[in-house]
Specification:
Layout (H helix, E strand, L loop, with lengths): L1 E5 L3 H12 L5 E5 L3 H17 L5 E5 L10 E4 L11 H22 L4 E4 L4 H12 L6 E3 L2 H16 L8 E4 L7 E4 L5 H22 L5 H16 L1 E8 L5 E9 L2 E6 L10 H8 L2
Bound molecules: adenosine-5-diphosphoribose (APR).
Length: about 280
């Protein structure tokens, strides 16, 4: 599979590294407005592929025409939220980056499946949809797998169980309004603790690193690529008939979203902020 990655920063380059090590791509193309950064990452990743004995074509460019007929394109391009910057401001700036990028993808890889990573995630799925004019079943946003993994860690810590066997998932918006669903017996306080810790997980990492998390977000994208390649269920932000996007369980294949797995929790997702912000993009 040919995988294009727009934005060769922390998340983009880690996605490439995981795709190479897990034999998930035959070709990888890195595109970044910072050409030197993309070139440097490409050279480093090419060396990694030789060390791991992987025969993968890896290139970097700013020329979108090289993104011809790719199967999957991941958009991580954007800016991270600065101190004092409102969500509205961030949404406007990143929507214009995601919008421009989406138009280019539509021009050169009209049959691709697009995976969005740029924040604010759910709104960026909408921005991609509006600008690419792709079918809704070809655009998916990465958040649910990441938030669910964070919730699993928090539940495991609280109940002293393995995070791998923790039965908890996160649906809905990729922000404070996320919806947590678990079959584990919890008191109200325990549930609230897990919810608070999951909501704050990203910000905690940012405080420690001075930049947002990247290993786990990259791994979540690669899980989505695997589900596209081999078929499988994952949680992703997907658009509904009203052009509102939030995290739902979906069945993926090489054709895109095959099915949305219905769940009563979708009805309790608060979409008011999304609707308000979407009007200003
Ligand atoms: N076209 C191509 N690349 C761009 C553009 C653009 N118009 N604008 C920015 N970029 C690139 C930057 O040059 C940078 O290399 O996007 C990359 C983003 O990488 P990082 O700053 O390292 O951010 P990262 O941690 O990878 O997060 C990517 O995911 O969490 C979200 O919204 C958050 O913007 C962030 C994105």
């Amino acid at each position: 599979m040919k995988v294009g990655i727009i934005g060769a920063g922390n998340i983009g380059s880690n996605i490439a590294s995981l795709l190479i090590s897990q034999d998930l791509a035959s070709e990888i193309l890195l595109i970044d407005i910072n050409e030197k950064l993309a070139l440097g990452k490409m050279l480093d990743l090419s060396t990694l592929s030789v060390i791991l004995d992987k025969n993968i074509k890896i290139n970097s460019t700013l020329d979108y025409s090289k993104l011809k007929d790719f199967d999957i394109v991941v958009i991580t391009a954007g800016i991270t939220r600065k101190e004092g910057q409102s969500r509205e401001e961030l949404a406007k700036i990143n929507a214009s980056i995601v919008g421009e990028t989406s138009k280019k993808i539509a021009e050169f890889s009209p049959n691709a499946i697009i995976i969005i990573v740029t924040n604010p995630l759910d709104l960026m799925v909408y921005a991609c949809y509006k600008n690419s004019c792709f079918n809704k079943n070809k655009i998916i946003g990465m958040a649910g797998e990441l938030d669910s993994a964070r919730a699993k860690l928090n539940l495991a810590k609280l109940k002293n169980i393995s995070p791998i066997s923790a039965k908890i998932n996160v649906f809905g918006m990729h922000n404070d309004e996320m919806i947590i669903q678990t079959s584990q017996d919890l008191t109200k306080d325990e549930f609230q603790t897990i919810k608070d810790e999951t909501i704050n997980a990203g910000a905690n990492i940012t405080k420690l690193l001075g930049t947002s998390a990247y290993y786990a977000p990259a791994a979540a994208v690669v899980k989505m690529v695997k589900a596209i390649k081999n078929g499988g269920n994952i949680i992703a932000s997907v658009l509904d008939d009203n052009e509102i996007s939030f995290g739902k369980e979906i069945k993926l294949s090489k054709k895109g979203i095959e099915k949305i797995v219905e769940n009563e929790v979708y009805k309790s997702v608060d979409t008011s902020n999304f609707i308000k912000l979407k009007k200003n993009l």
